[in-house]
Amino acid sequence: MAESTPASDAAPDAAPDAAVVGEQAPAGVAISALHKAYGSNEVLKGISMTVDPGEVVCLVGASGSGKSTLLRCVNRLEEPNAGTITVADHVASDPDVDLDAMRREIGMVFQQFNLFPHLSVLENCTITPRRVLKQSKADADGEAMAQLRRVGLEELADRRPDQLSGGQQQRVAIARALTMRPRLMLFDEPTSALDPETVGDVLAIMRQLAEAGMTMIVVTHEMTFAREVADRVVFMDQGHVVEAGPAAQVIGNPQQPRTQDFLRRVLDPTHVDLDV
Question: Which of 115, 201, 206, 261 has the fewest other C-beta atoms within 10 Å?
């Protein structure tokens, strides 16, 4: 379906105010000696790291290095085999943790948009606040419209997902997560399924969230975004943290040979070393 409203095609220029991060303070994350295996395949091999409240940490590395699994363990979409994860006041790795209470403070955006195709954009953004937070329709609609306004899609509230571009759908997914006023946002390669022309709109929204003080853990291959927005970059390989530090250091001057090799391939994909 053709787009007729220019405002719907581009992310807003103005950064959101601090209210976008919710009325509660941003949440920190602490991970210690985390292990996760699928049968004999050990995906996470003793991961330890922290994310301070309001900090943006980008996880980078080759496919299969354990980045997405780590993210899913934080939200307990995957059950860790060993180790501890603490999100704010919740011990996420505790089998008895109140998952509903913990997840109310965590927003997650996936590679795929996971929008309900039979619901409008507005309905996609209000269904969880109404069912989980028991908000009235008026309150849920008001919050949803505020978040859609932040991502530049207020005028598309009545459309269905299949009437939107991929970038617009991902921005709706971000707005939907923000309607719960999370203290922590998790992004699992949110631009990997997008056309190159729409990637920038989604990254602009994420940049604004970072500037507003949201705690964020981002799995990404967007090295420019990681360099410019992340407070720290964590390079993972084969289930281990190989190198971690300030973004300018890890991306601009990596110390470990495996990190150097990965970044050389990502930043200069046409360069191939061949043994002849």
Answer: 261
Question: Using alpha carbons only, what angle is made at residue 140 by residues 138 and 144, rounded to the nearest 5 degrees?
Answer: 120
Which residue pairs, CB below 8 angstroms and at least 24 apart, start in 47-50? Answer: 47/83, 47/236, 47/239, 47/240, 47/241, 48/83, 48/241, 49/234, 49/241, 49/244
Extended strands (E) in the chain: 29-38, 41-51, 56-60, 82-87, 90-91, 106-109, 184-188, 215-219, 232-237, 240-246
Cα–Cα separations (whole angstroms), residue 247 to 16, 217, 225, 265: 24, 13, 10, 18
Q: How many Cβ atoms from other residues are within 10 Å of residue 265's Cβ?
A: 13
Each residue's pLDDT tens digit, 65-115: 999 999 999 999 999 999 999 999 999 999 899 999 999 999 999 988 899
Q: CA separation (Å) from 94 to 14, 60, 74? A: 40, 27, 11
201: tokens are 């709109």
pTM > 0.90: no
In what helix (H) or strand (E) does residue 139 lie, and over which residues does it extend? helix 137-150
Residue 39 CA: distances (Å) to CA of 43, 85, 266: 10, 21, 31
Whole-angstrom distance, CA of residue 148 vs CA of residue 178: 9
Q: What is the pLDDT of residues 1-51, one digit of tens each?
A: 334 333 344 545 444 444 444 456 899 999 999 999 999 999 999 999 999
CA distance 74 to 67: 11
The confidence score (pLDDT) of residue 5 equals 36
